[in-house]
């Protein structure tokens, strides 16, 4: 299962919390859920434990908007607001609130790890090694700020006595170990040495009662510090049900799957190994089934989950106590069956009482009068008011079982890079290409290797673009450079140059970078536009430095577009040609493949998407319509993953870019 947009999504079982406090200690995820480490990091919501043990004296209780426990003493108010996933757990009862309260060893306090209140989490580790442990906690006093962490039943020395002193009365990340000498803890001393790949039992046990636990992260990066809600959660879970997947998108959802509706005598039958209810058109054309509403009185967004079909548009009517709520027809599909956003109906802010009769009436449909759709559907979801649209938009990844955000290995060769782009010619793809190039360099920590970036290198305007339109392009390219650099950070010492409008300064700047080249510190020039600026800079630089210059190119359209230099004349300077395949093949794609950036909550990704969209709506060229193009950034992707010395990616993909950027966003 792939967790994205994404975000990364949380896949949990549809088991619901009821109003009794005793149930708030029950796991709310299926026992098959495994949290997946990717690239040396894994995050887990605290409430997603698969079991508790040693809970005779203290247990962990789930707290959310609709799940508040009253277990013995617990003086502070709930803190689910601003908790990750709006939910956290607390170990109760809390009888030692201040230092003056009685300390009962082995009951409300335990300096012995693994003695009281153990939580268990299944985590798959693919990259063994030392993992530093970060925990997000809410502490209000001096006696609710300690925890222990263990591995597979063992409680190593460096997993004991996690301590919080700073960040009181707010959710705070910490990874410090309390010692006799330093009661507020020493950084980088809480870790687990995981020697083998595979599924491991990550465990936490109580040190002080009243501890409030939101989320934890394991990371191999000793310099990493979580921010905000921290890294998104990635799971491995063999779920093939679309209904279960979107029903689990919000922990407060209530569900009536088809299993809760009677079948006998209704006209429905179970289809696709019990995944859907449907109607056999050889027997009848209509079916009806009713079941009671069993949840808390209140208003909900009702989501009806149907299946689109290519044989016709079936019709579904929902009734509440025999009063019609509404009718829905899923659209006709190209595929035999289709589940997803457009096949779900939504009625918002509907009032329900426990015991209300929920009726589904289905009528089959036909597109040609010969073949019939079977009115397939999988259930109803009752979401919190205002959340129904989010439930419907939950991405679905079919039966993919393993969630992998597999970013390519970053192994840049030694040296520096210079980029010469156009963007002022009738080819607006440099807008997206520039934004992605800068984002990739920042995301991989290689921003300081960029020593020159110039744009608008098409020195002689062609007739296909007006003078006024070209001026706009210059301004857009400068904005892309300046805005992306500022928003992503790390390029403070670099001046982005307009090659045509500042030609002398541009040539001088690139020549300076060439003259600084040595065998140990070569210069890699990315040819993302016409070759003329490169030619002028080579001519203005020392000839003995040219053997330390490498020019990466991916398309003869750039090589052959010069007004002053041919490609052969560039090579005659003695530079090394590094040619890779046309990057348009995999990086000029349908714009929908970039919806993940458009819909991401981080404004840096939204901004990157916007620049690519500006190229797509260009009114000078037509070949960008419907496309999101960052093809020139493929040369940056090639270089940061190794170039021709370390087997770099010669045909990078959108997924490669996506995974690099999402990994960075999750950490920063």
Automatic annotation (TrEMBL):
- UniProt superkingdom: Bacteria
This chain belongs to the protein called: Uncharacterized protein
Keyword list (alphabetical) reads: Signal
Q: Which residues form the signal peptide?
A: 1-19
